[in-house]
Automatic annotation (TrEMBL):
EC number annotated for this UniProt entry: 2.6.1.-
Organism field: Lacimicrobium alkaliphilum
Protein name listed in UniProt: Aminotransferase
Residue ranges that the Swiss-Prot or TrEMBL entry lists as coiled coil: none
Cofactor(s) demanded: pyridoxal 5'-phosphate
InterPro entries: Aminotransferase_I/II_large, Asp_trans, NHTrfase_class1_PyrdxlP-BS, PyrdxlP-dep_Trfase, PyrdxlP-dep_Trfase_major, PyrdxlP-dep_Trfase_small
GO molecular function terms noted in the UniProt entry: transaminase activity
SUPFAM superfamilies for this protein: PLP-dependent transferases
Enzyme class: transferase
Length: 396
């Protein structure tokens, strides 16, 4: 029976990693996979996380299941990080939330929740969006459409086209927005643009679905949730999928949060039971470990301050690398203006070059990134930036 299923092609990013590993060129560079790397190309355990692990090891007394909702201090800590301490939706007890296995787990169970609300609704995602949004949302049986977002030729957001599209979205449809550090383009909405999105959500009565996987990697922990808080302040409902994979460096621990701002406490109570029953039907109980670490960090002034410093270091390193790459490209006389990289945020940027040029970077220089031209800025270092800039200048 199992032989009816055919082998699937390799996932483009994972396939790229395999090709990178097999490449024997000592100068090879991996700008593909979306994990933060330091100057030495390592993805280290954050010092705040290492300290939290010691505390957890000394204090954890059981490996019995945690509650279906997750670690309580993790949930309250994350809601404060996202919405702000004492946010009115928290005081009014309007927010349902569960700990989820990664941002992906949160995206999936929230999509299932949307399907339970209305199986006919459409989820609008940006063109382009993170590739995994499509299977995560689509597997829940929801229809997906795209709204225009990024213009590769202009290397900027197509905001007028985005607005024109969202002006036609049906009442009750869902619009997925990247909270910050848009993946794959690195192009984020300005504050004014977020206000326009709010106005559209109020006019059209669509439900914004915020995916926030890089809080702290753009402009800062507070600045990066400007849009999220604006919508939470002013709309009756909002859904949020958050991830601790990048900003806590907890990738393999699978720690995320699914949060739903509802109209009142009674709805919150109902939604809380619904989302827990969805999780029960997929993976039953959330994993504890990553959430327990984030709980320890967010609920200790000392560890939280240390973690905030570590997030700032990662953010500033990526901002410095952006500036360095752009100035090297200028110095080397690249025939394209890459200044846009400096205004983009977070871990990714689109280089806005053609798939053929991406192939050339891979074949001729062993510099690996996906065909869309998305690069992981954290894969650049002071020791490879000249090599990357030389290669780019040559293939243009
Ligand atoms: C836009 C976006 N959303 C969500 C995620 C979820 O990540 P994870 O499931 O590893 O927490 C990612 C990770 O790459 C992402 O880029």
């Amino acid at each position: 029976m199992l032989e009816v299923l055919k082998q699937l092609p390799a996932d483009p990013i994972l396939g790229l990693s395999t090709a990178f590993k097999q490449d024997t060129n000592p100068k090879k560079v991996d700008l593909g996979v979306g994990v933060y790397k330091d100057e030495q190309g390592r993805t280290p355990i954050l010092s705040s996380v290492a300290k939290a692990q010691k505390i957890l090891l000394a204090n954890e007394e059981s490996k019995t299941y945690i509650t279906p909702q997750g670690v309580p201090g993790y949930i309250s800590g994350m809601l404060e990080l996202l919405l702000g301490k004492g946010h009115k939706t928290l005081i009014e007890e309007r927010v349902a939330a569960v700990q989820a296995p990664g941002g992906c787990g949160a995206l999936r169970i929230l999509s299932e929740l949307l399907n339970r609300c209305n199986g006919e609704l459409t989820v609008w995602v940006s063109d382009p969006t993170w590739a995994n949004h499509i299977p995560l949302i689509g597997s829940a049986g929801l229809k997906i459409e795209t709204y225009p977002y990024f213009d590769k030729d202009q290397a900027g957001i197509r905001f007028d086209d985005m607005v024109a599209c969202l002006e036609k979205v049906n009442k009750g449809d869902v619009v997925l927005l990247h909270g910050c550090c848009h993946n794959p383009t690195g192009a984020d909405l300005t504050k004014e643009q977020w206000h326009k999105v709010l106005e559209l959500a109020q006019q059209r009565e669509f439900l914004p679905f915020l995916d926030i996987a890089y809080q702290g990697f753009g402009d800062g922990i507070e600045d990066d949730v400007y849009g999220l808080r604006l919508l939470a302040d002013n709309l009756p409902e909002l859904i949020v999928a958050a991830s601790c994979s990048k900003n806590f460096g907890l990738y393999r621990e699978r720690v995320g949060l699914a949060a739903m701002v509802t109209t009142n406490r009674n709805v919150r109570d109902a939604i809380q039971t619904q989302i827990q029953s969805i999780a029960r039907g997929i993976y039953s109980m959330p994993p504890s470990y990553g959430g327990a670490l984030v709980d320890i960090i967010l609920n200790s002034d000392e560890l939280k301050n240390e973690w905030l410093g570590e997030v700032s270091d990662m953010r500033e390193r990526m901002q410095t690398l952006r500036r360095l790459l752009v100035s090297k490209l200028k110095d080397k006389g690249a025939s394209k203006d890459f200044e846009f990289i400096n205004s983009q945020k977070g871990m990714f940027s689109y280089l806005c070059i053609s798939p053929e040029q991406v192939q050339q970077m891979r074949n001729d220089y062993s510099i690996y990134f996906v065909d869309s031209s998305r690069v992981n800025i954290a894969g650049i270092s002071t020791s490879n930036v000249d090599y990357i800039a030389d290669a780019l200048t040559a293939i243009l």
